[in-house]
Write a structure and sequence with these properties.
Strand content: under 5%
Pfam family, one: Cullin_binding
Helix content: 40-55%
Shape: elongated
Protein name: Defective in cullin neddylation protein
Strand order of the largest sheet: 1-2
Oligomer: single chain
Largest sheet: 2 strands, antiparallel
Organism: Tieghemiomyces parasiticus
GO molecular function: cullin family protein binding; ubiquitin conjugating enzyme binding; ubiquitin-like protein binding
Function: Neddylation of cullins play an essential role in the regulation of SCF-type complexes activity.
Number of helices: 13
Order of helices and strands: HHHHHHHHHEHHEHH
CATH topology of one domain: Recoverin, domain 1
């Protein structure tokens, strides 16, 4: 089975063509007061106007506080201080610094060159499927590019603060693909990730390149790819066909025995089975 050289090609192609309060209720009650136990009513004493400190007294007071070693400088409340420091997240700062290291300053995102540099720093080849797995974990949307939100939020969600963390977690991420549910999610993500974002379907050449990488050692992949490449009328693979082939490849014997043409399979798979049974494979 060919090495994943198509991966870096896909990332490069995209740079040149594909664009990618609830409040408690306070109850107030009227209280009946017995007049016999009420205290005598006192006359109100007029309030004195607050004295306004003269500049001289203020200056004296300032000197006095200085002599006593008292800092008269107004201070922020503890609440305000906490609010100021709460906005700084060391982890986020580290990820922002990491992102800026690879960002294309002319494009405000990480492009193909930045991705290659990041791959070198985490010890993976851009030609390997490790790059696709990384993009999956970042939930990247466009081939060849990582947005600032995808890179920083994606790595933070995975518990990574730097390149060394990514390198350490890659084996775990790859092992997740041994779990059927994760593998199926990865397969679906690949459809969205590798197609032209302006199109609803995946171009046939791209589908033919991706399938051998995501369904390795499956007996149907190689003949199905040849079938796609020999059918002049097949130019794209839509989402239903893509996901149906996933189920078909896992449930149908290599010789297509037991395949039910009356089942709810796409016509593309009916034609593939007929092609196989006709001795074309």
């Amino acid at each position: 089975m060919p090495e994943c050289g198509f991966i870096s090609t896909l990332f490069r192609i995209s740079s040149s063509g594909l664009s990618a309060a609830s409040f408690g209720t306070v109850k107030l009650e009227l209280i009946n007061i017995d007049p016999d136990i009420m205290p005598p009513i006192r006359k109100k004493t007029p309030l004195k106007e607050p004295a306004v400190a003269s500049p001289a007294s203020t200056a004296v007071g300032t000197k006095r506080t200085r002599k006593m070693g008292i800092d008269a400088t107004p201070r922020k409340s503890g609440r305000a201080q906490r609010k100021t420091t709460a906005g700084t997240d060391p982890k986020q700062d580290a990820l922002q610094t990491l992102y800026k290291k690879y960002e294309d300053p002319n494009d405000a995102q990480i492009g193909p060159e930045g991705i290659e540099a990041f791959c070198a720093d985490i010890g993976i080849s851009p030609e390997s499927d490790d790059l696709l797995i990384l993009a999956w974990k970042l939930n990247a949307a466009t081939m060849g590019f990582f947005s600032e939100a995808e890179f920083t939020a994606g790595l933070r969600a995975q518990g990574c603060q730097g390149a060394a963390d990514v390198q350490a977690k890659l084996p775990t991420w790859k092992a997740e693909l041994d779990v059927d549910a994760h593998h199926k999610a990865y397969y679906l993500w690949l459809f969205r990730f590798t197609k032209d974002p302006t199109q609803k379907s995946l171009a046939m050449p791209t589908a033919a390149a991706v399938l051998p990488q995501v369904l390795k050692d499956n007996s149907h992949v190689e003949p199905f790819v040849r079938f796609l490449q020999t059918q002049s009328g097949v130019h794209v693979v839509n989402k239903d066909q893509w996901m149906s082939f996933y189920e078909f490849s896992l449930s149908t014997p290599a010789d297509c025995s037991g395949y039910d043409e009356m089942g709810a399979w796409p016509t593309l798979l009916d034609e593939y089975v007929a092609w196989r049974r006709g001795g074309e494979a």
